[in-house]
Amino acid sequence: MQISMFNQTFELPSDVLAAWIFTIIAGGFVLLYVIKKKKLPLIWDYIRTTNHRKIGTLYILFGVVYFLRAGLDAVFIRLQLAFPDQSFWVFQQEKYNEVFTTHGTIMIFFSAMPILLGLMNVAVPLQIGARDLAFPFLNAVGFWLFFFGALFFNLAFFVNQAPSIGWTGYAPYSLNEYTPGVSTDYYVFGIQLSGLGTIFTALNLIVTIFRHRAPGMKLTRMPLFTWASLITSYLILIAFSVLAVALYLLMFDRLFGTAFFSGSEGDPVYWQHLFWIFGHPEVYILALPAFGIFSDIIPTFSSKRIFGYPTMVVSLALIGFLGFTVWAHHMFTVGLGPMANTFFALTTMTIAVPTGIKVFNWLFTIRGGLLRMTAPMLFALGFIPSFVMGGVTGVMLSVSAADFQFHDSHFVVAHFHYVIIASTIFGIFGGIYYWYPKITGYRLNEKLGKWHFWLFLIGFHLTFLPMHISGLQGMPRRVYTYGADEGLTGLNFTSTIGAFVMGAAVSIFLWNIVITHRRGVTVGADPWNGRTLEWTVDSPSPEHSFDPMPVVDQMDPFWYAKQEKRQLAICANPRPAPPDEQSMIPISMGLSLFVLAAALTYSLYWLAIAGGVGIFVLMAIRSWTDRTIIEEEEEA
Amino acid sequence: MVLKRFTLVPVLLMLAGCNITVLNPKSATGKDQAFLIWFSFGLMLIVLLVVFFLFFRFVATYRYTDKKANFIPEDVHGNKWLELTWTILPILLLIVLAVPTVAITYNQSPISEVLKKDEAVQIEVEAQQYQWTFTHEGGKTSNQALVIPEGKTIRLQLKSKDVIHSFWVPALGGKVDVMPHKDLYYEIKNPEVGTYHGKCAEYCGLEHAKMIFTAKVVTEEAYEQYVKE
Questions:
Q1: Fewest CB atoms within 10 A around its CB: which of A172, A221, A328, A554?
Q2: pLDDT of B1 strictly over 50
Q3: Closest by alpha carbon to B146, among B202, B205, B194?
């Protein structure tokens, strides 16, 4: 379909048209709901909030929305690959390339990351007895940067300019010469913006965990989810800085004619190094928080403390550290030579050791326990065998000579979906079921939760197990079709069925949320018979939590207090809570950078300058009106 | 329903036995790689089975029943010896895996200076969006069809005219990237007669999926004749 506007003709493919129609109708319904239920004041409140639970909720909400969008991309991919030489709707060539690019990019940057950050936002302060993150204002800025980064990236599709460079954005294909036009710029600026927000949030979490623990909450008594969040934050700090550098260089190459990744001085392999120095730790940024979630869920529903707590912490740190030494295992075939290849093969193998330790420690936490099969526990248990299946293919991939066969085939697709879905996605679902009472005051329906789990587990294995074989059968990744004579038909069709089963599972999850809120049965502070401090505060957690402030005398303090039928001791003079405030500045900052990004994408430099000036003006306003500084001065 | 997943494992093994391209390689290079795949898979299967066994045993034994409603499990802080066991055993297992990994990786990485002296069949591979050009010694060129002699060492010199591509004939061996800024080398040793699918394995743009070719391994005589044609 063609549309004429501003004296220009735009090509509007049917998928984009469908998305516009769907969005307008769905948006209309949401608007109607908001007005009818008088939710506008609530939205107004969330726009200005700096409270950790509310920001966490926003992170999770938008993360889930983008999860659905990227999940729909996955369904399109599977439909296109269901049969050999198939033509499903528009998803061949350019459209197929766009859809796998947006699937990967959105799932990682705009779904998994924000949902994990959201869970950290909700749970970390409550687990350590902090009343909020150390810098609530910065927290809000971080969220709005994510929000506008994700919005920017997703808008590309609506103007039919979705990037098609793969989530890895390899140069020179991502350079101007091969992808002219604005689509790749949407990728560059969308990720840059939200990545900046992620760095802020990581800094915030580090300071919070070091500075705002309840009295007696030594590092050695901290819940493992908080430990995982701490180590993840350090990984984010380093890895996302590298990503920011890589994206800046790509931006300069694309917009201002530099040649970092091409020409006689530049080298496309530089991009791969930078990208994977970010990209491999990113895998652990996604996995470690999930490990943390499982390390809290498993003891809770086994009624038994975690087996080998010190080893669990050390292995988290080791995985995080080793994660920075393995990046070139993504580059075995680019000709780095046998020396580099064997080095990175061996470092990669070593990661299996701390990961294995964790798996066995989880198993021995279960041993001798009393396992309550609740929805969060099912996800934690389902994680163990599924994740180990992904882990062992990871070791197989580390065998550098064999990787020449595995590399960029569907075997790799199977491997990374096994590890990421089994850890991150199971962790996210488990975490949402687990902390839902802390976020909303309601507990999600257990029966639907179990349906959700089993369908998702079956669908997941059905989708990705056959891909190991289709990879070894010779199917490269990122191809939109394959021949009928290649022995790939049955495998691909099975994967497609699996994708629909997963889709059904996610629909049950959404339905669960709807009916839980419709029924509106609230639960108390401690619906799961929990062990850690978050279960001592009300559900949902109040804005002024931990009043009075508890004193922590051991690990799992709440559990042992309940066992001994005593109250937690109380501290009379707790550390001052971080300032609680409401402000329009964070969202305005996000908006200014959004304007800057959009302007640079379309080379409207006067507008870019306006956006840049805007951000500095907002910083200045903030500096003059920061209530915390003013109050401190008054006290002095 | 847990059992459903279990039944998939033998299915996978069965499938693996029959006709999977990479596991039935038609060259010495591919056979070394298939050996590593089977070897690492075997080692990892040990890990997988141990974890599965413990997991299903523990879950079955310790799950909540109404009989145990008032049971409060005993706290176990950890166990130094057990934890040492599952630290050291995996390290040993990985050392066993590391030895052939290093050996075969070195063995399969051609070093360009050495290459020029020996008696391999040289073929230049040039990739560009979305086609392959093969140039044989003596200047014979062909598109989309690679013809090589059986039983020899085939040395590929690969270069791209535009973006990064990757040369892959699953039946003959692993892939090697085709870079725009420098030549890479790859050797396929002792290929067997047959016609195989070849593909581009690095995403390179619009028609990446259609950037395919055929690799035909022929007898030495047939090859001589082909080059002269």
A1: A554
A2: no
A3: B194
Q: What is the pLDDT of residue B18?
A: 60
**What is the CATH number for B179?**
2.60.40.420
* Chain B residue closest in CA terms to A306: B77
pLDDT at A49: 94
Three-class HEC string of chain B: CHHHHHHHHHHHHHHHHCCCHHHCCCCHHHHHHHHHHHHHHHHHHHHHHHHHHHHHHHHHHHECCHHHCCCCCCCCCCCHHHHHHHHHHHHHHHHHHHHHHHHHHHHCCCCHHHHCCCCCEEEEEEEECCEEEEEECCCCEEECEEEEECCCEEEEEEEECCCCEEEECCCCCCCEEECCCCCEEEEEECCCCEEEEEEECCCCCCCHHHCEEEEEEECHHHHHHHHHC
pTM of the model: 0.94
Residue A2 has pLDDT above 70, yes or no: no
Q: Which of A371, A395, A563 faces B40 most closely, judged by CB atoms?
A: A395
Q: pLDDT tier at B69 (50, 70, 90 boundaries)?
A: confident
User: What distance in Å separates residue B144's CA from the closest CA in chain A?
Assistant: 16
Residue numbers of the domain that contains A425: 39-635
- Looking at the fold, whether A34 and A44 belong to one and the same domain comes out as no
The pLDDT of A603-619, averaged and rounded, is: 95
Tokens 């350090």 locate to A234
Average pLDDT over residues B15-26: 78
Query: Within 13 Å, how many C-alpha atoms sit on residue A136's CB side?
Result: 25
CB contacts, 8 Å: B209 with chain A: 96, 478-482
- Any B CB within 8 A of A486 CB: yes
Tokens of B112: 């360009």
Same-domain status, A391 and A426: yes
Tell me: do A29 and A176 sit in the same domain.
no
Contact B108 A361 (CB under 8 A): no
A153 lies in the same domain as A23: no
A574-593 mean pLDDT: 88
Domain span holding position B44: 1-66+110-229
**A212-245, pLDDT tens digit by residue?**
999 999 999 999 999 999 999 999 999 999 999 9
Are both A580 and A471 inside the same structural domain?
yes
Q: What residue has token string 């039919």?
A: A160
What is the overall mean pLDDT for chain A? 93
Kindly determine whether residue B203 and residue A345, on different chains, have CB atoms separated by under 8 Å: no
According to the model, what pLDDT value does residue A10 have? 66
Give chain A positions within 8 Å (CB) of B55: 363, 381, 384-385
pLDDT for residue A231:
97
SS3 string, A443-507, reads CCCHHHHHHHHHHHHHHHHHHHHHHHHHHHCCCECCCCCCCHHHCCHHHHHHHHHHHHHHHHHHH
Tally the domains of chain B. 1
Please indicate, yes or no, whether residues A479 and A490 belong to a single structural domain of this protein: yes
Number of domains making up chain A = 2
What are the residues whose beta carbons fall under 8 Å from the beta carbon of A179, sequence distance 6 or more? Answer: A163, A164, A165, A173
Mean pLDDT along residues A620-629: 82
Cβ of A474 within 8 Å of Cβ of B199? The answer is yes
- Give me the pLDDT at residue A634, please: 62
Say which of A353, A367, A465 has its CB closest to residue B8: A465
Is there a contact between A338 and B106 if contact means CB atoms under 8 Å apart?
yes
> Which among B1, B109, B170 has the least Cβ separation from residue A458?
B1
Per CB-CB distance under 8 Å, the chain B contacts of A334 are 177, 179, 184
Verify that A314 and A199 share a domain, yes or no: yes
**A with B: how many residue pairs have Cβ under 8 Å apart?**
278
In angstroms, rounded to a whole number, what is the distance separating the alpha carbons of residues A223 and A204?
A: 18
Question: 533-572 in A: which are within 8 Å (CB) of B?
Answer: 563
Q: Which two structure tokens, joined as six digits, stand for A15?
A: 């998928």
